[in-house]
Design goal:
The structure is a homodimer of 382-residue chains. With 382 residues, chain A is of the alpha/beta class. Chain A has 16 helices and 9 strands. In chain A, helix 11 links the parallel strand 8 and strand 9. The N and C termini of chain A lie far apart (55 Å).
C-alpha cells in the first residue's frame, strides 16, 4: 500500500512516517556534512551540541557561509520562536537548548519570537487571554534554559508590535497572497490574520540589520517542518537589502505514543511530556510510552530492542543523556538486550525528574527579568 | 452600446458614469429621506450641513437608529480616514467638513485614521517615507478644517499600531480570505499586507467601545465607493460584541476634466484641485475645467447651461457656495443663461483663493497640536 509511505510536513501539519532524507531532497536543503560538524566544533571551542552530534539536527541552508563569516569576524544572531498554544513539552527544548548553546559558545544575541497573535489566528478554540498567558509561561520556560539576560531579546508579538510593524509593512508588500497560499496550503476560509502572519514571522530575521543599519547575518534553528515559512523569508531577503537567514533543521521528535511528532493539542496530551506535568504524570506517561522493545523479556534479552523506533530513546538522544558515553551505552545496551525497557524507563525518569526540579528553580529566577527582554519599540520608525 | 452605461465602483477603482440610485440599489443601502433630513436638522440645533442639504450625501445605513439613540442620550462617535498617497484635493474636504460639522453640532468625538501602511501596500510606486510624509501633510489639512483638539483622536497606522493591534488580532480572526477576495476583487498577486488591511480599517469602528468597555455607536461618513470596506465591518460587528457602525454615503465629486472622480494620481493631476496647488495653478486648472456650458456665448445666453454635468458647479455645490441662497442663485443663473462660464469661474476662483488663504493660516496653527491627537497606546492590551 503506497499510502502507508506517504507523509505530510507543513508548518501546520505533520503526518505519517517521515523519510528525512527524502524530505531534505523535497525541500532542497543541504545535509549537515562531517566537514561542517568539524567547523562548528572548532568555532565552538572544541564542543559540539549533543543534538547536532547525535544527528537530530541534520539539514541546513547556508550554515557554512554563516560560520565562515563568523570565523572572519562577522558575528551573527540567533532567531527562534514559539507559538504559545499551551505548555511546552520536552521536544520543544531541542531548538531552544541549541540556541542557548550557540549563544554561550559563540557569544551572539538571541531573538525570540512569541507568536501569541498567530496562535489565536490558527486555533479557533483559543482565547486571546490564553495565548498571552501561555506566551508568558512559555517565555519563562525558554529563558530558564540558560539564556543570557543581556543578549536575549523577545518579540512578544502583541506587546512588541510597535517594534515589529514598521519593518512588517515593508516585508508584507513583497509577499503576494499566491505565495502563502502555495507554501502553507491556505484555504479560502483561512482568516486574513493567518495569511498575513508570515510577514511578522519574517521580520525578526531582518530586524537587527534594519534597526542597527548594518548587515547582521541570522541563524534560525528550527524543525524541518518550519522550513517553508523561512523559505519565503529567504526569497524576499535580498530584495529588501538583507542577507538570507541561514537555517539549521532538526528532525521531529516522535511522540511518546510512538506516532507523529509531539503535539500540544489536548486530545493527545499523553503523547507529550509537558514541562508543567506533575511528577506522577511524568511517571505515568513514561511508563506508558511506546518503545522499541519485544513482546517478552526473554525475547528481548535474546534479540535486543530497536532504539530507532523508541520514543524513550528519542528522549535520551535529544537531551537526557548528558554525555556521549552515556548515550552510546544506552543505545548499545538497548540493541544487545542488556537493557530492558522497564529499567531504561526508570533510569531516564530519574534524569527527567532531576531536570524538572532544576528547571523549576531556574524558572522562578527568570521571572525577575523576563519582561525586560521584551522589545517594545524600535530605534527607527520607517 | 451597453458598455457605455457600465460603471465600476470599488474601494480601489471608480470608473464610468455612475448611476447613483442604481448604485444604492446594488449596494443595498437606504436613501436619505426628507424625514431623516428633518431629524438631523432638529438634532443639530436647526442647521443642516450644505452637502447634506444639496444631496451630495444621499445614502446611509442605520443612520436613523443612531440618531434616535443620540436623541435618547446615547452619544456616538465619528470615524473617517485618509490614505495618504499625495496631497488632499478639494473633494476630500467633503467628508472631513461633514465630520467637523457633526463634531461641532453634536459635541461628539472624532476618530481619524491615516492609513500610511495601506497606501504603501496599494501603490507600488510609493515609498514608506512618502506615505508617512503625506500622512502628516494630510493630517494638518484635515485638522485645519476646524476639529476640536480635545475631541479628535488620530490613528496614524504605523504610529498607532500598538493601540490598534490588540483589537485587530480579534477582528482578523473573523474575516476569511474569501470575504476580502470577493468584496475587493483581490488577485492572487495582491500582497498579504493589503489582504490583511481591512482588519485594521475595521478597528476604529469598535475601538472606543473596546477601550472604554461600553457600547458607543459609530458613524462613518464616506464615499459610496468605500461602502464595501465597511460592509465587512458591519458583518462581523455583532459577533465581536460591538454595534454595527452606521454609514452616511456621499456621491463622488466629479473631476475638473469632467470625467471620473477627482484623483490623487499624478498623471491626471489637472483633474483635481490640490490643497497645495499655488494660486496660479488653481487659476489655470479652474480656467481649463470642464463645464456644462454651450459652444458659443450667444447660444448659452439663449439656451442656458447644464449644471449637473459641470465640474465647477460641483465645487459650488460641495462647499464654495457658503449659503443656500448663493448656491440656488448660481444654479438658477447658470440654467437660465444669465451667468456665463467665464464669469462663474472668476467668482468661484475668488472664493477658492479666500479659502486657501484662510486654510494656510489655520494649517500652521494646527501643527502645534496635531501630534498630540495621535493615539499611541490603548488602555487595554487584550
Amino acid at each position: 500500500m503506497p499510502g502507508e509511505e506517504e507523509f505530510v510536513v507543513t508548518p501546520y501539519e505533520v503526518r505519517g512516517r517521515i523519510d528525512y532524507d527524502r524530505l531534505r531532497e523535497l525541500f532542497g536543503t543541504q545535509a549537515l556534512t562531517p566537514e561542517l560538524l568539524a567547523k562548528i566544533h572548532r568555532l565552538a571551542g572544541g564542543e559540539l551540541h549533543p543534538a547536532i552530534r547525535r544527528g537530530i539536527f541534520y539539514s541546513h541552508r547556508d550554515l557554512g557561509s554563516l560560520l565562515d563569516g563568523y570565523a572572519n569576524g562577522r558575528p551573527f544572531f540567533l532567531y527562534s520562536g514559539r507559538g504559545p498554544s499551551g505548555p511546552l513539552h520536552t521536544s520543544h527544548l531541542l531548538h531552544f537548548d541549541l540556541c542557548q548553546w550557540f549563544q554561550r559558545r559563540f557569544g551572539v544575541p538571541m531573538y525570540l519570537q512569541i507568536t501569541d497573535d498567530e496562535k489565536f489566528w490558527a486555533r479557533s478554540g483559543l482565547s486571546r487571554e490564553e495565548t498571552v498567558r501561555w506566551g508568558y509561561e512559555n517565555l519563562y520556560d525558554i529563558l530558564a534554559l540558560g539564556f543570557d539576560p543581556k543578549r536575549t531579546h523577545t518579540f512578544f508579538d502583541s506587546r512588541s508590535i510597535a517594534a515589529l510593524y514598521p519593518l512588517a509593512i515593508r516585508v508584507a508588500r513583497k509577499i503576494p497572497y499566491s505565495t502563502v497560499k502555495a507554501v502553507f496550503g491556505f484555504e479560502p476560509s483561512t482568516n486574513i490574520g493567518l495569511t498575513f502572519y508570515t510577514a511578522l514571522q519574517t521580520v525578526p530575521a531582518f530586524w537587527p540589520s534594519w534597526a542597527e543599519g548594518r548587515t547582521i547575518p541570522c541563524l534560525i534553528p528550527c524543525g524541518i517542518d518550519q522550513d517553508p515559512h523561512f523559505r519565503v523569508t529567504r526569497d524576499i531577503a535580498e530584495g529588501l537589502g538583507y542577507p538570507k537567514p541561514a537555517l539549521l533543521h532538526s528532525q521531529m521528535v516522535p511522540g511518546l505514543l510512538g506516532e507523529g511528532a509531539m503535539s500540544t493539542s489536548g486530545e493527545r496530551a499523553d503523547n507529550s511530556l509537558f514541562l508543567n506535568d506533575p511528577p506522577e504524570v511524568v511517571d505515568r506517561k513514561v511508563r506508558h510510552a511506546f518503545t522499541g522493545g519485544r513482546a517478552t523479556v526473554e525475547e528481548q534479552r535474546r534479540l535486543g530492542a530497536t532504539p530507532e523506533i523508541c520514543s524513550v530513546w528519542a528522549q535520551w538522544r535529544m537531551r537526557f543523556a548528558e554525555s556521549e558515553e552515556k548515550f552510546e551505552q544506552v543505545t548499545r545496551d538497548c540493541r544487545s538486550g542488556a537493557l530492558l525497557c522497564g529499567d531504561c524507563k526508570s533510569e531516564i525518569l530519574e534524569r527527567i525528574h532531576a531536570f524538572y526540579d532544576q528547571h523549576a528553580i531556574a524558572r522562578e529566577k527568570v521571572k525577575d527579568w523576563a519582561e525586560s527582554t521584551i522589545v517594545a519599540s524600535a530605534p527607527k520608525d520607517l
